[in-house]
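W.,

You were right to be curious about this one. When I first looked at the sequence I had no strong expectations either way, so I just let the prediction run and decided to look at it fresh. Below is the sequence, 338 residues in total, followed by the output.
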Amino acid sequence: MDVVTFDDLQSGLRALYPNVDRTTGEPYGFDYLFGYTTNSTGVLTRGLWQRNSKPQDFFRLVSWLVSIANEFDINLGQAVIRKYPGVCPYCLVAPCRCSETNKRPAIDIPTHKIGEELEARALAFTNTQKVTFELCQKLLRNIYPNNRSTWQDAGPWKVCAKLQEELSEVHEAATDAITKKKSKDLLAEELADCIAWATGAWTIVHKDIVFSHEISSYYKGGCPACGKGPCKCEKYGARSKSLPSIETLGQLKEYIFALAEEVNLSEEDRESLLASFKQAEDVPTESATRRVLQQVDDLSEKALSQADKAEKITKKGLNTANAIRSIIDIFGQGGGGA
């Protein structure tokens, strides 16, 4: 999947995940999508709070938000630009001056003209250029330059809290749209807010990584969980899990011990690995599984470092190390704790 614009991601995910139960032919629906959006929000905010979030944590949340937009036939890129057309939607200037104006316009404009002003600014963007993730990052960075300072001074708590708050508003707006109480335009606005907070966090945490390039690589082989395109995962299946299955743990075990043979990992490290895998297999709790992921990650890095110093690593060994890295990257090694 080549992702340059929001439209690319929306159409790509629509093709990759048809959002239909392959067994019954019934659509999964909003409740299913929202459940996993909530799950992905929790994983990302936990990673942000513990300062160990991974790029794929962002990709999963953004992808589920895009799937909700697809469910309601909302153009998410346009929704983001309409909400944040180069100025703050409340004080109407950039950088934002809401702290001074109490969220009132900082320019002289009649109240009934505010909507027209924002729409005109949005059209100026959408009529002249494609809505890319990088464009949105630039706009938000210019509107809210103090977010980085707030993060540095007080930590990620505000972003974590706002993501959860905006997600609750997505649910409210979606149920109103489903029951025809309100327009889906309100849902589009709430989805845009979620994207804005996630994008803002990405700009701070992964400022040197190009989002569109990385998410293209993430989906390069199809569904990251089953490796197929369209996705062949069962409903509530592999693509939604935050921890590896027993089968995947077995594969990881095979890989790390193959790498251990390749680089002569110490007997002490091998015995420790065996004990950790046995514990995770016998009592597959989250904490035990996370410990195995962390240990495999640490030892694979150690093994590669030793091999690099000795200038002794074969192509097979590098392929094995890359296979280990792929599994670790899918499931991450952060987590645990309150």
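Here's what jumped out at me. Residues 13 and 67 are 7 Å apart (CA to CA). And, maybe more interesting for your project: The chain is about 65% helix and 0% strand.

Coffee later to discuss?

I.
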